[in-house]
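Notes from hallway chat w/ T.B., transcribed later so I don't forget. T.B. wanted the structure written out for a chain they're using in a teaching module, and asked if we could keep both sequence and structure tokens in one place. Agreed to drop them here.
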Amino acid sequence: MKTVRENTPKLDAGQPVFHKVAENLYRLESSGGYYALVKKADKQFRRSLKTKDRKLADRRLKELKQQIGGLSLADDSKLGFEAVANRWLASVKHTLAPGTIEQREIRIKNIAPFFKGTPLRNITPFQSERWAIDRDSSKTH
């Protein structure tokens, strides 16, 4: 997010120009829309507040700060499919029959190699569809 003070020369024509309005609140020069820049645990969260009204932008900034304040940022965000699936299974095992647990363990074991090395948050519906197609084509041969 590039910011400019009133007295400084303009940046490149292709770069958006933001003016700092208040703490964590910026206004885009070209559209007049408000944007938030909030930091937590060495991570930046930049969001459009989807408004041109200052008072509404202040309220939405406050709500965004509360949402970000409630986040727990940890290395768990990099966990892959197998680790998350096994955590989930461990959390629901007490409600399942032994045969069901065994079947779910087999399914996790069979799906996991396809998504190996990809954090769960980066797995897309397209990859899931590709897995289903690959699995279906291997059954027919």
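Follow-up for T.B.: The radius of gyration is 23 Å. Might be a good example for the class.
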